[in-house]
Amino acid sequence: MRVPWKLVGLAGIAGVAATGVVVARRRRAERAYDPVELRERLHRRLAEVAPDGAAAPTPPRPSAPR
Questions:
Q1: How many folded domains does the chain comprise?
Q2: Is 53 left (phi over 0), alpha (psi -120 to 50) or beta?
Q3: What is the pTM assigned to this prediction?
Q4: What is the pLDDT of residues 45-63, one digit of tens each?
Q5: Is residue 59 part of a domain?
């Protein structure tokens, strides 16, 4: 019985692509922050970079509920 190598190759490529999609979705889900948490993290990082207060962040504006 002959193995259709083109089909084996296409199946391999499809498997690699499907694995990449699954990994990308998982990474995106892990990094999803709500806007308030993201703003707090960014302000904290800015405070670490400029501890002397030269570039102190402006106070956050109250956001409207969505």
A1: 1
A2: left
A3: 0.41
A4: 998 887 665 555 566 666 6
A5: no
